[in-house]
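Journal club side-thread
Mid-discussion, someone asked how the predicted structure for our own chain would compare to the paper's figures. Pasting it here so we can look after the session.
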Amino acid sequence: MRIEVLGSYGGESVKCRMTCLLINDTIALDAGSLSQALPIERQRRVETVLLTHSHMDHTSSLPFFVENVYGKTKSIDVHASSPTIYSIRKHLFNNASWPDFTRLPNNLLPSILFRELEDEVPIVLEGVTFTPFFVDHLVPTFGYLIEQDGVSVVWSSDTGPTVRLWEIANAAPGLKAVFLDTSFDNSMQRIADLSLHLTPRTMAQEIQKLMLEVPIYLHHLKPPCIERVVHEVRALKNPRVGFLEQGRVYEF
């Protein structure tokens, strides 16, 4: 399993791209920076997009990506929960914010097809199994168990303190890593709690629920909080915990 980190942050700045992973070169998990991080020839290789939820830092490049690859003979499949699909269709591809590419070039040959995912029902895409499961966030949000060739990783997406994620991780065959939201520093605990994100303090409590000795990669840091989050995480001196590196390719 090859995971390329196109964007690893929960906001945008000159050096920070928003959340997007590229799996085995052809599957995008979220689309916060899909069009910004890849040249168009590589964008054309992407056949499938899976979304965790509807927030802009996970979807904002989707309209530009679809425009960049417009004219492909095969539609782009966009997999997401029913609430996420509803939100994307109503607020994004609505001909007001952006053209409705579900009807372009025509209804019979749309540029994108939305495909509904069901909670904890696995789907196999190009040899990779994705099992979505709900985490705890402001809008309906999926994390994913991702499996291929006997190994697995767990992607948290945006979440506050949660339960099901850890149950799935502890039961996952061949688990190699957990990717976990840590958005705000400890001084912003109240906003983290209200927006259902983690800080280093609550992250440290959450990872105690993981019974397996595997690496934990933190992601979704908010750009203004990066320096303080890094300092507070390093102060924990937990050798299992590191940061997801934007631009890096992880092989599992």
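Post-session note: The longest strand covers residues 128-134.
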